[in-house]
Amino acid sequence: MKKLMVGMALTATLATAVTPGFGSIGGNQEKAYAAATVTYKVTASKLNVRSGAGTTYGIIGSVVKGQTLSVMSKSGSWYKINYNGRTGYVSSDYVQASGTTTPPAESTTYTVTASTLNVRSGAGTNYASIGSVTKGQKLSVVSKSGSWYKINYNGRTGYVSSDYVQASATTSPKLVVDSFKTLGNAQQVILVTADNYDTKSAKIQTFEKVDGKWKQVLTANGVLGQKGFALSKKEGDMESPTGKYTIGTAFGRYANPGTKLPYRKITANDVWVDDSKSSLYNTWQQKPANGRWTSAENMDIPAYDYGFVINYNESRTPGKGSAIFFHVGTNYTAGCTATSKEQVVSILKWLNPEKNPVIIQSPVSELDKY
User: What are 13-66's pLDDT values in tens digits?
Assistant: First the structure.
């Protein structure tokens, strides 16, 4: 189990003055951390840290009773925290906030307005200057008390006068799904992109709409067919189809890992028919064939430890391609999309059929189609 990075115990004394100095601000953080006079401690014996603000998101670790959390902000009943250098979320029901100040929203930029602004070692002009910042610089603000900001300055604590710092709301970065026009009622999107048609390497991102706004949930590396994406998919071409598709049945060689999708456990007799001349083309069947097909893909293999069906070629047009899945794999596929078993399971647990999930597969240059 990973241990949580100990959060800042936040106290409220800030100060600095305006006189010439030296040095430059450490980092370019533009979001405020938790406000002064508040510490956040875990009250549960063990508390899951999730990748997003909700129990549908994957677990990325845990924290234990008494641990102090580095809280960045709060959304509903969830705290956004710094967890081992990455972003995590914990339920506020199991965290005790000692103090009276609520964590700030994640939308403030702090910019120096003076030509030169001293950074001081303490809260007042009587404290020594430890450096300076210049007009236009962004400050990493820890907290505010009165007319002073406490900042992160080259890895140490410093203080600047708020009279010479402009705090302004910033717009959250626009996500790629924000520009999509074809999502309809989909509230979950798996986006699979590649640099071009010919590469087998892919980037997998998941997004979920929460309270009317898209949030990014996961980013992972993945692989496509051995020959990349297909301009026009054909049976046996070793290419993955581009397009937008709904999500079908989840499957695996083991018990349901916790997905809300319809789940089917694979048996030794399960196959997927890839015989274009068969009336059962592009369907899940069981051996023996008894003349019903001449070619079918065995489902009881490690690549299908876990996965789900991508609803491609639902009309079962002969020769257009069959057995298109999202499954386990790290090298290349015969036309599916794959990633690590850990990520496949995480995505399966996250998918919710009530949110009408879709998967979009495309070279980056053609995302404007969606």
Answer: 323 333 322 233 333 333 333 334 467 889 889 999 998 888 888 899 999 998
- pTM beyond cutoff 0.85: no
| Residue that is written with structure tokens 């998941």 in the block | 206
CA distance 353 to 356: 5
- pLDDT single digits (tens) 70-91: 888 887 788 888 888 788 899 9
Beta bridge partners of residue 361, listed in sequence order: 192, 243
- Rounded CA separation 305/342 (Å): 11
Using an 8 Å Cβ cutoff, are 299 and 251 in contact?
A: yes
The rounded distance, in Å, linking the Cα atoms of 20 and 15 is 16
29 half-sphere exposure, CB direction, 13 A CA radius:
15
What is the DSSP track for 104-147?
Answer: PPS-EEEEE-SSEEEEESSSSTTSPEEEEEETT-B--EEEEETT
